[in-house]
Structures are given as structure tokens and as C-alpha cells.
């Protein structure tokens, strides 16, 4: 097995985080925890900042990280889902002849509208994120993460631990694992959790015009840890008293 490294970070959130499912209305319910693709975008910002706004063959620059990052997952000690009213500017969706404001009659009535967006607020404003990669240098870019999800989802780095995955593998894991991190349904069966279909780390999820690739994850309920029975093809990590169940393929 090739050497793999991980970066476990604790993020401080300054406001609720809003992340909608792909190809849905902005007013759709938000995910309680940022899916792997959102975490990849958060890492792409400091890693590929110089070319962040460029699209190559219709794909986001974050797609380049798929060659280096084999797994990404998030967890929180608890969360609350809420909704808030936002103003949405429609000018970018209007015909060019509607872009200029008519000074005689005032702003065009279709220039903006409102929507109700979903948000997640985390216990103690703490969000935990784990990245796994063969490239240790890539993982050092986590120090530059400053936002998650929307541009308004500003975060700061509280703690970072970067080390070899092999040192933290639980060799003889118990039959039941308690975890705050969401877990793929094909490697564990979990209680005190809900199933969410979230975008996985797949090229289709970073390119225009391609069908989103979703995967079912168990996500802990609002408060407390979920209890999981580990199935085959899984590895249990114990890092700073946090148990994380990951696919075996993430460290092959």
C-alpha cells in the first residue's frame, strides 16, 4: 500500500453555512454538512488561486485536485438547520436591453427577487474536515482555507494535524463505532443518522453539462454522534479522539 497522508483541520465558522444540492433551486434545503465536492472547492481556492476563475474544457479548476486528493469528509459535534430570506439579483438572467436602469421610471421590477435559503449552524462554531492524499505538499495548503460553500461562508483555521494515515489506523476496531463524520452507506450501517445523497469526488461533479454523480452517506442527527456497524472494505481511523470510518480504497 502506497504511503498516504491526512490533514485533519478544525475550522471556526463565523456565520451559518449554506450548501445546496447540485442542479437544484437556490431555495432548496441545504446539506447539514459540506459534501466532498464542497470540501474540494475549499481546498482548491488556496491551492489553485491563480487559475481559480478559469474553466478548462468546461471543468472547474478544482477538478485538478482529483489527481491528488483521494478522500474528503466533514463532521461536527452538532448542528442546527435554519432558513433565511435572501435577495437574489436577476440582472444576469435578463435580456441585455433590461440591464440599464431606466432613470425616468426607476429600477426594473424584475431586477431582483427574494428566496428562502437553507443554512447549517455548527455547535461551538466548529467544523471538522479530513483530507487524504498521497501528496503531503498539497495538504499543507489547508492553512489557506478561508471559506466553505458560498463566498459568504467565511471560516478560519483553528487547528491542523498533518501526518501519515498508517499511524492512526485502528487495527482491531470494535464492532460499533461512534462518529461525528458522515460515512458512505456502502461501508457502514448507522443509527441516529439520516441518509443524504451527496455529490462524490468524481469528475462529472466539476464539469458543465455532465450528469452529477451522487452517493448515499449517513449523516449524524443534529446533536450527538451516530453509531455505526462497520461493513467490508472499510478502515477506522482514530485521530485525537475522533473516530472516522473511511473506504479502504481511499488509501490504496
Q: Overview of this structure, please?
A:
This is Type I-A CRISPR-associated protein Cas5. The chain has two helices and 14 strands. With 252 residues, the chain is mostly beta strands. It has a single domain, classed as 2-Layer Sandwich (Alpha-Beta Plaits), CATH 3.30.70. The protein has a four-stranded antiparallel beta sheet with strand order 2-5-1-6. A three-stranded antiparallel beta sheet has the order 7-12-9, with no helix packed on it. The longest helix is centred in the N-terminal third of the chain and has 12 residues, at 36-47. It is globular, with a radius of gyration of 20 Å. The model has no long low-confidence stretch (mean pLDDT 88).
Give me the secondary-structure topology.
Elements: E1 5-13, H1 36-47, E2 69-75, E3 79-89, E4 112-122, E5 126-133, H2 136-139, E6 155-164, E7 176-179, E8 183-184, E9 188-191, E10 193-199, E11 214-220, E12 226-230, E13 234-239, E14 242-247
Antiparallel strand pairs: 1-5, 1-6, 2-5, 3-4, 7-12, 8-11, 9-12, 10-11, 13-14
Gross morphology is: globular
Provide the number of structural domains. 1
SSE pattern: EHEEEEHEEEEEEEEE
- Head-to-tail CA distance between termini: 6 Å
Q: Ranges with pLDDT <50 over ≥5 residues? A: none
Mean pLDDT across every amino acid position: 88
* Number of discrete helical segments: 2
Strand order of the largest sheet: 2-5-1-6
- The CATH architecture is 2-Layer Sandwich
Number of strands: 14
Helix content: under 10%
> At the first level of CATH, what is the class?
Alpha Beta
What structural class do you assign from the helix and strand content? mainly beta
Radius of gyration: 20 Å
What fold name goes in the CATH topology slot?
A: Alpha-Beta Plaits
As a percent range, the share of strand residues is 35-45%
Sheet with the most strands, sense and barrel status: 4 strands, antiparallel
Amino acid at each position: 500500500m502506497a504511503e498516504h497522508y491526512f490533514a485533519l483541520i478544525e475550522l471556526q465558522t463565523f456565520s451559518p453555512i449554506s450548501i445546496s444540492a447540485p442542479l437544484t433551486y437556490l431555495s432548496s434545503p441545504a446539506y447539514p454538512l459540506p459534501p466532498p465536492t464542497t470540501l474540494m472547492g475549499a481546498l482548491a481556492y488556496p491551492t489553485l488561486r491563480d487559475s481559480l476563475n478559469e474553466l478548462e474544457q468546461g471543468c472547474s479548476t478544482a477538478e485538478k485536485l482529483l489527481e491528488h486528493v483521494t478522500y474528503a469528509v466533514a463532521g461536527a459535534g452538532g448542528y442546527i438547520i435554519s432558513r433565511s430570506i435572501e435577495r437574489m439579483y436577476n440582472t444576469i438572467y435578463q435580456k441585455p436591453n433590461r440591464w440599464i436602469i431606466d432613470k425616468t421610471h426607476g429600477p426594473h421590477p424584475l431586477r431582483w427577487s427574494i428566496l428562502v435559503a437553507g443554512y447549517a449552524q455548527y455547535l461551538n462554531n466548529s467544523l471538522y474536515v479530513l483530507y487524504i492524499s498521497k501528496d503531503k505538499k498539497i495538504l499543507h495548503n489547508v492553512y489557506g482555507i478561508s471559506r466553505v460553500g458560498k463566498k459568504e461562508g467565511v471560516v478560519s483555521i483553528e487547528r491542523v494535524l498533518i501526518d501519515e494515515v498508517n499511524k492512526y489506523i485502528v487495527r482491531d476496531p470494535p464492532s460499533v463505532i461512534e462518529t461525528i463524520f458522515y460515512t458512505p452507506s456502502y461501508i457502514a450501517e448507522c443509527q441516529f443518522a439520516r441518509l443524504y445523497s451527496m455529490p462524490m469526488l468524481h469528475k462529472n461533479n466539476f464539469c458543465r453539462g455532465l450528469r452529477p454523480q451522487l452517493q448515499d452517506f449517513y449523516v449524524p442527527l443534529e446533536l450527538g454522534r451516530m453509531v455505526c456497524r462497520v461493513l467490508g472494505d472499510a478502515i477506522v481511523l482514530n485521530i485525537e479522539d475522533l473516530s472516522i470510518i473511511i473506504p479502504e480504497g481511499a488509501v490504496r
